[in-house]
Amino acid sequence: MVKKYSGFNLFVNSLSYNENWQKIWRSPQPKRSYDIVVVGGGGHGLATAYYLAKNHGMRNIAVVEKGYLGGGNTGRNTTIIRSNYLWDEAAQLYELSLKLWEGLSQELNYNVMFSQRGVLNLGHTLQDMRDIERRVNANRLNGIDGEVVAPKRIKEIAPLINISSSCRYPILGASWQPRGGTARHDAVAWGYARAADALGVDIIQQTEVTDIRIENGRVLGAETSKGFIQTPKLACVVAGHSGPVAALAGLRLPVESRPLQALVSEPLKPCLDTVVMSNAVHGYVSQSDKGDLVIGAGVDGYNGFGQRGSFHIIEHTLQAICELFPAFSRVRMNRQWGGVVDVCPDACPIISKTSVDGLYFNCGWGTGGFKATPGSGYVFADTVANDRPHRLAAAFDIERFNTGALIDEHGAAGVAH
Fold first, then answer.
1. 226-275 confidence digits (pLDDT tens)
2. Are 377 and 405 spatial neighbours (Cβ–Cβ below 8 Å)?
3. Domains plus CATH for the chain?
4. Interacting residues of 75 by C-beta distance below 8 A, sequence separation 6+
5. What is the CA radius of gyration of the chain?
6. Which of 39, 83, 85 has the alpha carbon at shortest distance from 63?
7. Bridge partners for 223 per DSSP
């Protein structure tokens, strides 16, 4: 039976300050032991827990988050989604993620507001265009959509863009992935949290992992701010704080954590119906459903855990966007924020078992983590459940930094996204 609400009922509920609203996930106290504990309640961690429960039939799972769900990088990014990476290993992983994005709202029964508005990666030099053509050809060999487009076509897709040959960085062309786009970042966390909770996963917020207990080379559990939690498997997905958490187990990861800034403008009428990115000018921009321009660029040039960043990065980013879109020069900035990203030397993630039995890490996504959320959780859950790498995760084992089998995606990961 469907409960109907009159206008009066809606008015009364609006005055209840959410007191009578149904919770979309439980807030239990931690049990003494779990089969698996996922450390990190961002999109990747929640997706991991969901796929552990859904695909592998596990129910005695906890997600432990030191703050609130989605309070880290999941809620501090520019929501860009694409899969047009260069090397086979990365492209196939991101393509899995994009395919999952395409059915995610139906999968979770929760609207994540995935909008396939397409992504343009601009080329400003002959070398840019050679790189673009190489990447598009590699994508198409992997069955990933993409095409090389000329300035006239770019202007059709984004009418406000400046394609004049007299500008400082003339646009010679671009790669175009029509299936790329954006999604609502916090809705992704909420959707996965609700779906995981419905499958019996305990989501435990405001609970920090303070130590990892190990005996004879095997995980025994995690010390937390709410006491010791016993578990034979600890799956760590803590983004920019991966290094400090690994140090609790005596491990040193090949990652550096840096601030990444972004900003939004005041709301505008619809004027940009796609995502535009430029390596040379060094900026990227899209327009949200609320009307504000979502703008970002590269990471700050220093290591740190502050969610702030430095002013000169904002200044440089806005110069870049005004170079591409002169009409935006009079738009006022509304707010700015920063995330903490962990970056590997080859701009690719670590999805791996470690030298400690029962300890797993999913980290090093740099600035491309949001777009990988569903795929990351899918392959990491499989890796943890079966104690061996998923087929698409095998190339991202931590041992590649010993063997030298790196996957250098700095070019395709350009402009930090």
1. 999 999 999 999 999 999 999 999 999 999 999 888 999 999 999 999 99
2. no
3. 29-77+186-255+346-403 (3.50.50.60), 98-181+264-342 (3.30.9.10)
4. 185, 186, 189
5. 22
6. 39
7. 211, 228
